[in-house]
Write a structure and sequence with these properties.
Elements: H1 10-18, H2 31-47, E1 54-58, H3 64-71, E2 75-80, H4 83-96, E3 101-105, H5 108-114, E4 119-125, H6 134-144, E5 145-156, H7 160-173, H8 190-199, E6 202-213, E7 218-222, E8 228-235
Helix pairs in contact: 2-3, 5-6, 6-8
Function: O-methyltransferase that catalyzes the 2 O-methylation steps in the ubiquinone biosynthetic pathway.
Protein name: Ubiquinone biosynthesis O-methyltransferase
EC number: 2.1.1.222, 2.1.1.64
Length: 237
């Protein structure tokens, strides 16, 4: 497979591959993902019951969300291009005996060509700020989901507050995330993501913000989309 022709940033892949063994350590730099996972999962599951659904998790990393959705009764496929992270996900699924979850090293665009319209739900969380062409990912997700099916996105807004909180705050001051995890230029405004969704025949139905209090180390969902935010969309027609 020639990764150079795909919508992938090799430096980003290397970054996450180097961290792979720490994905399931809840006190590692991936602690924020473990902390926000129940919030993401409950929000998704509250809008569409995952029981018996065929679900695709795009950019699944070490499988934190994919694993949780499978435990809600979904049949889950997680895809990523970071080989080491996928191996971690596969190993965890074996060790934890997670039912109905599998992983594949393939891009969303390539899978969309192979299996269009074959998933009830598609999730793409904390991933679009790491690829060169987010619009291409949105199109692929729209192609992969069945008509009327749900596609969920989460990413980081691009503004001064997001820069201060997501980069300066989280990476440098609090040391929550490895330095260089995020690049400000790759952040995506909600208006831009909504435009990508409309162009791909996805109707944006719900938006939520994700907030964090560094003193209490607590996360919660709110209406404030100024930093981290989530979109729930449905495929039209």
């Amino acid at each position: 497979m020639n990764h150079h022709t795909e919508n992938v940033d090799l430096a980003e892949l290397a970054k996450f591959s180097d961290l792979a063994h720490r994905w399931w350590d809840t006190e590692s730099e991936f602690r924020p993902l473990h902390q926000i996972n129940p919030l993401r999962l409950d929000w998704i599951h509250g809008l569409v019951s995952l029981q018996g659904q065929r679900v695709l998790d795009v950019g699944c990393g070490g499988g934190i969300l994919a694993d949780a959705m499978a435990r809600k009764g979904a049949e889950v496929l997680g895809i990523d291009l970071a080989t080491k992270s996928l191996r971690v996900a596969q190993l965890h699924a074996l060790e934890a005996q997670t039912p109905n979850v599998s992983y594949q090293e393939i891009s969303a665009e390539a899978l969309a060509e192979q299996e269009p319209g074959s998933f009830d739900v598609v999730t793409c969380m904390e991933m679009m700020e790491h690829v060169p062409d987010p619009a291409s990912i949105v199109r692929a997700c729209a192609q992969l989901v069945k008509p009327g099916g749900w596609v969920f996105f989460s990413t980081i807004n691009r503004n001064a507050k997001a820069f201060l909180l997501a980069i300066v705050g989280a990476e440098y001051v609090l040391n929550m995330l490895p330095k260089g995890t995020h690049e400000y230029a790759k952040f995506i405004r909600p208006s831009e993501l909504a435009g990508h969704c409309r162009a791909a025949q996805l109707e944006v139905l719900h938006t939520r913000g994700l907030q964090y209090n560094p003193l209490t180390q607590r996360y919660w969902l709110s209406d404030d989309t100024s930093v981290n935010y989530l979109f729930a969309t449905r495929r039209v027609g």
